[in-house]
Specification:
The protein is an alpha/beta fold and 332 residues long. It folds into two domains: 155 residues, Medium-chain alcohol dehydrogenases, catalytic domain (Quinone Oxidoreductase, Chain A, domain 1), CATH 3.90.180; 137 residues, NAD(P)-binding Rossmann-like Domain (Rossmann fold), CATH 3.40.50.720. Helix content is 26%, strand content 27%. The chain has nine helices and 17 strands. Strands 3, 6, 7, 8, 9, 16 and 17 form a seven-stranded mixed β-sheet that branches. A six-stranded parallel β-sheet has the order 12-11-10-13-14-15, sandwiched between helices. Helix 3 packs across helix 4 and helix 3 crosses helix 8. The chain starts with a strand and ends with a strand.
């Protein structure tokens, strides 16, 4: 089978690998589609670890400089179910957290069986949408809350989709006019660039002069965190949903931020299994919103490529091509 590997900085190649065996407690899935999580996968493409010591490529993935698979979103067909698996059978259409490759073998507990009314092109975004969903929940917005998103990649736009689904006033913020246009199509109350001379006034005016109740920072930039603190209301919350490898150049707890009493929290991963909004319950809600047509995420899907185009997709992202946002990769 074909699988994508990142073998070094800005080196994406395909290798032939054996089709993996099906685990007794798992599934063997043949890929129909995968999707690109642009921020995370671009960092891996650049071979940038998450820690300053260079020991981890992801939070729980040790890094020793060896080749890395990339991606975490796949929709495919079950080829085989393990002997201990119940509830899945060959031919089932499923979402799994698989990387970019033709076949994935993984525990059945990680698979989500898909309803007929949700097409592959929508379901493949479940994990990516989920990051924005989690970030919004981590901000604990009240009904009718005012929410701002800084950084309109797939995570910021995903959070915006849930704001629209739950009828929250929203400010979508990015330097890219193409991404601001997407945000408007997705229902942003205001979509604006920080370069606009009246940027702060327009955001504050939208939120009754008080600022945002919740600001979701999805730009992977400490400058964006500073802007988030600037537009959050007193006693507001800033949720950092993006991975940061840069260093701050301002005092986040100095003047004028200390007296605003703003809470800053990070957002990463689902609640533990069995919690009210664990992975399965969160995905079930997303699938329900999709079937009802209440989650307006489709405008963020800007490109569809075949699997062999992936190295060029990464190269374009690396060159700063902000026209690429949500991306679907076809495997057959």
């Amino acid at each position: 089978m074909k699988r994508l590997l990142i073998t070094g900085p800005r080196k994406a190649v395909f290798e032939e690998a054996p089709i993996p065996a099906c685990p007794r407690d798992g599934l063997l899935v043949r890929a129909n589609l995968t999707s690109v999580s642009t921020g995370t996968e671009l960092r891996v493409y650049r071979f940038i670890p998450v820690d300053t010591e260079g020991k981890f490529m992801h939070a729980n993935s040790p890094f020793d400089g060896s080749p890395q698979e990339n991606g975490y979103s796949m929709v495919g067909e079950v080829v085989e179910a393990g002997a201990e698996v119940k509830g899945f059978a060959a031919g089932d259409r499923v979402f799994v957290p698989g990387s970019h490759k033709e076949y994935a073998a993984l525990p059945a507990r990680l698979a989500v069986k898909l309803p007929e009314r949700v097409p592959d092109e929508h379901a493949v975004l479940l994990n990516i949408l989920g990051v924005g969903h989690i970030a919004l929940r981590d901000g604990s917005p009240d009904p009718g809350a005012n929410v701002a998103m800084l950084g309109l990649g797939v995570i910021g736009l995903s959070a915006l989709a849930y704001c629209a689904a739950f009828s929250m006033r929203s400010a979508a913020i990015d330097f890219s006019e193409a991404r601001l246009a997407i945000a408007r199509k997705m229902g942003a109350t205001v979509a604006i660039s920080p370069k606009e001379p009246d940027f702060r006034k327009r955001v504050l005016d939208l939120f009754d002069g008080q600022g945002a109740d919740v600001v979701i920072e999805a730009a992977s930039s400490w400058a964006a965190i500073q802007t988030s603190l600037d537009i959050a209301r007193k006693d507001g919350k800033v949720v950092v949903a993006a991975r940061h490898t840069d260093i701050p150049t301002f005092n986040a707890v100095g003047h004028p931020y200390l007296n605003k009493r703003v809470s800053i929290r990070t957002s990463y991963g689902n609640e533990p299994d069995g919690s009210r909004w664990d992975r399965n319950r969160s995905m079930a809600l997303t699938l329900d919103l999709m079937t009802q047509g209440r989650l307006p995420f489709q405008p963020m899907v800007t490109h569809t490529f075949k699997w062999s185009d992936l190295p060029e997709v990464y190269a374009r992202l690396d060159r700063g091509d902000t026209d690429i946002v949500g991306t679907i990769i076809r495997w057959r």
